[in-house]
Amino acid sequence: MSFIDTERLVTMANQIGDFFAPYPHARRVEGVRNHLRNYWDPRMREAFFEYLDATGGPDVHEHVKEAAALVRADTAPVRAYAGPPKQLDATS
Amino acid sequence: MSTTNPAPAGTAGTAGTAGKQVWTELRGLREGVDLGTPPRDGEPVTLTIDGVETTVPAGSSVLLAATVAGATVPKLCATDTLECFGSCRVCLVEIEGRRGYPASCTTPVESGMTVRTGGERLTALRRGVVELYLSDYPASDIEGGWSEFHTTLEQVGLTDGLPADHPYRGGDHHQHLAVDESNPYFLFDPAKCIVCSRCVRACQEIQGTFALTISGRGFGSKVAASQDESFLASECVSCGACVQACPSDALIEKSLFPGGYHRADSGQA
Amino acid sequence: MPIPVKPDNSVVTTCAYCGVGCGFKAETHEGRVVRMVPWKEGKANHGHSCVKGRFAFDYYAHPDRIRTPMIRASIDEPWQEVDWPTAFAHAASELHRLQDTYGRGSVGAVSSSRCTNEEIFLMQKFARVALRNNNIDNCSRICHSPTQFGLSATLGAGAASQHFDSVLQADVVLVVGANPTEGHPVFGSMMKRAVRRGAKLLVIDPRRTETVDSPHCRAEVHLALRPGTNVLVLNSVAHVVVTERLYDEEFVRARCDWDDFQLWMGLVGDERYSPEVVGPEAGLDPEDIRRLARIYASGPKSTIYYGLGVTEHSQGSTGVMCLGNLTMACGMVGREGVGVNPLRGQGNVQGGSCLGSWPHMLTGYRFVTDPEVRGSFEAEWRIELDSEPGLRLPNMFDAATAGTFKGIYIQGEDPVQSDPNRHHVEAALRSMECVIVQDLYLSETAKFAHVFLPGSSSLEKDGTFTNAERRVSMVRQVVEPLGGLADWQITVGLMNAMGYECHYDHPSEILDEIARTSPAYSGMSFEKIEKLGSVQWPCNTDAPEGTEVLHTVQFPRGKGSFMLTQYVPTRERTDDQYPLLLTTGRILSQYNVGTQTRRTANLAWHDEDVLEISAGDAAARGLATGDRARISSRYGSTELTVRISERVNPGIVYTTFHFAHTMVNNLTSNLDDWATNCPEYKVTAVDVVKAAAHAGVGS
Ligand code: SF4
Ligand code: SF4
Ligand code: FES
């Protein structure tokens, strides 16, 4: 059983993706990463990752998937900020 | 001795646009003090009130200056949340070099003015004016009352001997007009209305709804809501600004009458 | 003899009904409130008032008030009255049991904007130190959460930039998605005063509200846009500003991030946002969009006031950003008479927002994910805090229906009635094992509760409120709490029962704690507020007496940021089956979901929620004013009485949501703001048909 209905999670994630879509690629991904990391309960993130692992996320925007991967890989200290997505020096 | 108007503080910036003026007016209001007319923020003007040198911003009324100087000038139609109107003629003063007895609420201050706010002549004149209002006010509602009107009665020395000597006995009055109790929260008793139009002006200037007017003329003039409808049926939004402005308990909160509102006077139920 | 009772005592306090936060003198006679008199020195109202604060105070003594705590094992059982210690012990043991069984994160709390700053602060403290998680949210989630997000993103502070009086100095007043004369009457009066003195009024709102046209106050331009097209239309206004070069380049260069400005110009300057393209889609005359943009940009002092018509959309946060961008582009921020200002609904929504009642933020809008921020609270509270964001209220309900969230402590809110998609909320509550409701009455939500804690009204406690202009004013106890305890005492009681020891003698000590932990409040104390009458945050060493106008020298982050606000149409669309768009609002005499005003004589003006419909749409359905109609959406249906109205355009219907029995939130969708989950109350595709029979016709 998923923590929250996956359809709902996918909708939310894609909506976030839609907002950041007009930014240049690296910033677009960072915008979504920052949002998922700092606004989503970890169990929601986990459920979302599980869904991506299980299905490959055919209905999830590409840059949202990239952002999800960044959140998962995030070992560096959390960058928590409001405002426009920042250009990341290195994307993994 | 010299006093300055404490009201309009913190008004840095460029010279008075219309908007800025209102801003000052509102910010100058103080609880417990009725300056009589709204505070202004013009250049300082110095005048003498009852021998006291007083400085107030240009554009202020003599009534405001007198209040700042510590004088008590009786008044009925003026209050500092509303622009002056000058209808009741209770706030008369003497100004050196001017003929007659100008209303202090509508007279702007001028530099070097010398104003007298008291004295027998003025008191007699004011008493004469207030007596007219009193003659139309229900006799049973005078003793124990605590409205602005009641305070004015005291200020001009008209409470002695009441209600027995109430000048209204036998005179013309408005007690045949029904009380409007349609609004769930306040009522309007035309018998107590002195037609100062403060409610009408509050509805326009403060609330901005324009629901009230004075209809008719002379003794027949009265406060009307919209097209002479009940308060509840009218455009009134029940903000309470008129009740707040009314000096004579004509517009008043129902909650102050726990047992209901019953007229006692002259055969009225 | 009709001599009025003379009050024997008077206490200055703050109205709890709306975000204007009017000052009042509560006058009592022999211990009972006999009238509320507007306070002339109140800086929000200057002696003015509206029907709610002035007259509708009787709710506090209504017979429906619950005065004793109650518990029950299941919601099908009758309530059992208990004493306070028993109620606390029972609630605490239930919460512990759930956490032991389902995990620490399976329970949460919701604070209320009807409560004081101190009580809101305590609620988030409760979640963090007693529940040991960050599952704490507040009711601004469903109204102004996008404000906090959108204004923080652009200007760096999620609150009004001005004080109310500032509107009197404006040359142009732009009202977006708000109806101040109804929603925020005392501010509405002040705005009308500004217009009568010559300020130009611009309105963007689907309805022709009283704000658009009333005696001596008429909008110069009114954009009656199709609900859901805010961002499109605001981008179009920005398009005109950019392509006609109406922006204030000097201001932008000096105060804002120039690169992001360029990026933004590229987006809104695109042909797809030109008025000629946008007009037909939004149902507007392109020339009106141009006129509005030109008047706004030419000022010289233009100010923006906006309401739920901006925030309650799937692009609510984006819409707020559009406004932030616009003020910066035109240099309309940082002085008197300009700025961008949310008009907030309930009394203390601003307080709810800035006192850390968020799952991802502590006081002062600082992230829980930031170790330094957490550290300062850990030092104050001597306990380790959860480093991960918690659940927002809608996600708590989502998780509950998925079976992973089991208990909730709700203070002074009625989500069953106020939150979208009533079925979903009810199902969520029903699936929980412990619902604790703290309220004045047995609310709709209390039907699903296992513990009921009788709360206190704002006349029954001390504390502070923060109004929509960031003004912190005193709330003073006028009468004893009817249930014996003030709301803050209830939360403290529950906190102790949960095993976290804490004690306050007076709410002023809670404000002191807020000051110690929150930069914007650091200079505040009861003493100072008493002395100055009220104080606007930020109040700190730089501004010891508070701050009237924000952003005068620089933005909190330094440079202001233009955000890219691409228009993404809502998924809620009309079709053959649901051809009309329903939008919702509020009316003067009733307060939000009306749990208080419905218990007063304000019913004399508004005794039911009515559906406004245009003459053409009504005729096509054989409807006349007074008829009952069934309104159906993809989510549910309800019945309302119809009123044919010129206020709404063809294709649009409108209603309020003040009465539980009309269940308007049966209709609304589960779509919400992309950034904050603020529900999309303002756009629902519906159909309206004449109701079959007379099923409970209202009055
Ligand atoms: S009702 Fe009161 S305020 Fe209005 S005109 Fe009469 S006395 Fe004056
Ligand atoms: S409801 Fe709002 S406008 Fe009305 S009195 Fe209360 S705070 Fe003021
Ligand atoms: S108070 Fe001056 S004329 Fe009435």
TrEMBL record, chain A:
Pfam families named among the record's database cross-references: FdsD (PF11390)
InterPro entries in alphabetical order: Formate_DH_dsu
Lineage, highest ranks first: unclassified sequences, metagenomes, ecological metagenomes
Name under which the protein is recorded: Unannotated protein
Automatic annotation (TrEMBL), chain B:
PROSITE patterns listed in its UniProt record: 2FE2S_FER_2, 4FE4S_FER_1, 4FE4S_FER_2
CDD domains, alphabetized: fer2 (cd00207)
Keyword 4Fe-4S tagged: yes
Gene3D superfamilies: 3.10.20.740, 3.30.70.20
Alphabetical list of Pfam families matching this protein: Fer2_4, Fer4_7
Keyword field: 4Fe-4S, Iron, Iron-sulfur, Metal-binding, Repeat
Molecular-function annotations in GO: 4 iron, 4 sulfur cluster binding; metal ion binding
Alphabetized InterPro entries for the sequence: 2Fe-2S_ferredoxin-like_sf (IPR036010), 2Fe-2S_ferredoxin-type (IPR001041), 4Fe4S_Fe-S-bd (IPR017896), 4Fe4S_Fe_S_CS (IPR017900), PSI_iron-sulfur_center (IPR050157)
Ranges of residues in domain 2Fe-2S ferredoxin-type: 43-121
Span of the signal peptide: none
Residues covered by region (Disordered): 1-20
Compositionally biased tracts (Low complexity): 1-19
Protein name: Unannotated protein
Organism (species): freshwater metagenome
Automatic annotation (TrEMBL), chain C:
Any one GO CC term of the record: membrane
UniProt-listed Gene3D superfamilies: 2.40.40.20, 3.40.50.740, ADC-like domains, Dimethylsulfoxide Reductase, domain 2
GO molecular-function terms, A-Z: 4 iron, 4 sulfur cluster binding; formate dehydrogenase (NAD+) activity; metal ion binding; molybdopterin cofactor binding; NADH dehydrogenase activity
Occurrences of domain 4Fe-4S Mo/W bis-MGD-type (ranges): 8-64
CDD domains referenced in this protein's UniProt entry, alphabetically: MopB_CT_Fdh-Nap-like, MopB_Formate-Dh-H
One GO biological process term: respiratory electron transport chain
Keywords, comma-separated and alphabetical: 4Fe-4S, Iron, Iron-sulfur, Metal-binding, Oxidoreductase
InterPro entries (alphabetical): Asp_de-COase-like_dom_sf, Formate_Dh-H_N, Formate_DH_asu, MoPterin_dinucl-bd_dom, Mopterin_OxRdtase, Mopterin_OxRdtase_4Fe-4S_dom, MopterinOxRdtase_cofactor_BS, Prok_molybdopt-oxidoreductase
Pfam families, sorted: Molybdop_Fe4S4, Molybdopterin, Molydop_binding
PANTHER family, per database record: FORMATE DEHYDROGENASE H, RESPIRATORY NITRATE REDUCTASE
Name of the protein described by the UniProt record: Unannotated protein
Species in which this protein is naturally found: freshwater metagenome
